[in-house]
């Protein structure tokens, strides 16, 4: 082999990354003879080697590549791009759309692919002569930004063009394009090879390698698998090969062709590969002859799957096993011709699996299996063969009574049937296939769970997951349901958080290791305690005690303040108490409050003539009132009260000690004649001098104050206003005072007739 890699040392030395590396320092001759050429039996005319593309201002569209530490399928070789060589290095984190003015397309490419308006063409071409080989081959990968994954990136229908064109030098014949889909004449492009999972519909996805996402080896959106370009030639004749790639329509969405180093070599045609995918594989027991006869050959050496076949040194070899076959043919000139052919057998697609286990998904005991669902589990490439199912081997051999489904009753747990596998070319092969029903997961029945309604509101929140400890070895894929039908059909699952509103049953669908799913019920009984109807709040007089009675009908009692377990507690003072009452195994803690009776507060005693009105704070209809030592009455008004000192008693209805207040009724004068005759000349309430907060006011019928008593005037009114005697008529006056040692205000009002003359 002539190709060498020492020039790679010219590239930047550094830490190898997980992306391809590129190098633009190679000359066209080095790229073709030292990198691309891989055969001593091919002579290349160095004068004919040309590479054209874009090479300016630090940008170049072609050069050398190396996979580095990445997972790129080709170790190294030549990259021809419609954009910038350096932009092809991964990761795939931006769009390659390099273009330039006056970067033209290629007319030969347009004619070969029957397209128009190409630009940004990069071309590698040279002349060669094969000394002995009757064909040339090389390996390549096509990559493009036009492999779109999402609608936001663009749309389908666009493709860059590339072709590998070959013809005899000086021939007027058209170029032959050998960049085609295997075993067809269809040119390779984004529109003819596209994988699953992208924006555009898949086409020939078996030839698509991957979409590049994230830290990919290259910055192209996607790429093909490694493809082979093959051309039959006549040894000794000179041929011109032109490898060209170009954008079409505009310079957006660049593409590239990676040519494998050392792959441009000659070979001999051993015939078309026999493949299951192309439906021309061999049948079980068939053989095929590989004929590598070459004039003047000095030796033959055969290989199967890159391992030498010991003793196989003839020009022909009979194949009876599947594999990749290669022959090396040594010529007198010293060069070696190689030829390869891949042989597959339909019988090589042996049964992948002959025993299947299944579950009774709806748990009704009966199961129907659709046998077609097992085709790809029995044979990997089931679409390339015919598969039929039979109950017996005799039926299978006779091709009668074909079945399409397998029914299992409640009592049936396993069955064996026969599958017949055939192709259009090959006879049927028969295999027994067995099916068995897997065991259901199981656990002891979950006992009914009693839940207490703690708040007596006829509901209680529960978490169904809290009760799964009854099921051993439980997998994490359990689900809850409200009905058995839903659980069996695995529909309408519910949350684990539920609210009990009575006696309720839930269902869990669960599985255990290597066992089928099963269902179990979880039943709940919502139990309630109850309140004591006899235990009510009490009101007692200050300084006294009472008795609290929780009543009968409870299983246990516990007074939390003193630990008593009796339904009745005595000598209970004012306070808040709690008793825990048990019924049906449930507990309810009830609160009862013993209030202190509020003593009446006498705010005022109003005297109007001989009528006395008692004013109390927060009046209560149950209050009772008494005057002096008289009997208690409901009314707070007393009539015909005599002049002098008196005592009012107010008592609450629970017969607590009464509160007392003293007051006085003074002689309310209702006539004066201020004529200085010494009789009834003045209105004299000088006794107020000895009271607290005394007040004495006289006012006319319009409410205008005519006189204000004070210590200066000794609370005596002489019937004048502003020094003049008032006119004869009716007037009113008010007296107020507080007795020493009391906070109670005494108030009396009366009218008075004044006769001036």
What is the beta-strand fraction? 35-45%
Number of DSSP-assigned strands = 55
End-to-end separation:
159 Å
> Per the principal axes of the C-alpha atoms, what is the gross shape?
elongated
pLDDT averaged over residues: 89
Task: Catalogue the unreliable spans.
Answer: 1-16
Rg of Cα set: 57 Å
Number of helices: 5
Pairing-aware structural class of the strands and helices?
mainly beta
Largest sheet: 9 strands, antiparallel
How many distinct domains? 7
The percentage helix is under 10%
Structure write-up:
The protein has 757 residues and is mainly beta. The protein folds into seven domains: 16-267, no CATH class; 288-347, Immunoglobulin-like (Sandwich), CATH 2.60.40; 349-437, Immunoglobulin-like (Sandwich), CATH 2.60.40; 449-528, Immunoglobulin-like; 538-596, no CATH class; 602-664, Immunoglobulin-like, CATH 2.60.40; 666-754, Immunoglobulin-like, CATH 2.60.40. Strand 21 and strand 22 (336-343) form a beta hairpin. 29% of the residues are buried.
Features:
41% strand, 7 domains, Immunoglobulin-like, mainly beta, 9-stranded antiparallel sheet, 8-stranded mixed sheet, disordered N terminus, 4% helix, 757 residues, 55 strands
Short description:
By secondary structure, the protein is mainly β. It folds into seven domains: 16-267, no CATH class; 288-347, Sandwich (Immunoglobulin-like), CATH 2.60.40; 349-437, Immunoglobulin-like, CATH 2.60.40; 449-528, Immunoglobulin-like, CATH 2.60.40; 538-596, no CATH class; 602-664, Immunoglobulin-like (Sandwich), CATH 2.60.40; 666-754, Immunoglobulin-like (Sandwich).
